């Protein structure tokens, strides 16, 4: 699979307010999100997650989303507890 890769320059701080991990992109075929921190987080694909709503991504874990999973939508993350974490995300067009 060849394509353009879009990624932030650094890890994104994931705290008490939902942050954008990847913008919406109608051309994206796959999105990969890695929780690079020490606390669990929630991921919202096409919606704003809360500490109890969204896909759970454990510390040190990675998830891959494809078109059927909604990878072209805006993807946001939020911490699950009082401990903040960090995430790295990229998309492939």
Would you mind describing this structure in some detail?
The protein is mostly beta strands. It has one domain: Jelly Rolls. It is built from no helices and nine strands. The protein has strands at 5-6, 12-14, 19-22, 30-35, 41-45, 55-57, 62-66, 75-79, 85-92. Strands 1, 2, 4, 7 and 9 form a five-stranded antiparallel sheet that branches. Strands 3-8-5-6 form a four-stranded antiparallel sheet, with no helix packed on it. The model has no long low-confidence stretch (mean pLDDT 93).
Descriptive labels:
93 residues, mainly beta, Jelly Rolls
Distinct helical segment count: 0
Sum up the overall morphology in one term.
Answer: globular
User: What portion of residues is helical?
Assistant: under 10%
What is the CATH architecture assignment?
Sandwich
Using only C-alpha atoms, the radius of gyration works out to 12 Å
């Amino acid at each position: 699979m060849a394509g353009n890769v879009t990624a932030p320059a650094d890890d994104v701080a994931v705290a008490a307010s939902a942050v954008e991990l990847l913008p919406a992109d109608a051309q994206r075929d796959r999105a990969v999100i890695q929780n690079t921190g020490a606390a669990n987080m929630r991921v919202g694909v096409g919606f704003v997650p809360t500490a109890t709503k969204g896909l759970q991504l454990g510390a040190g874990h990675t998830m891959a989303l494809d078109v059927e999973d909604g990878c072209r939508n805006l993807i946001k993350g939020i911490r699950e507890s009082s401990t903040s974490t960090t995430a790295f995300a990229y998309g492939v067009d």
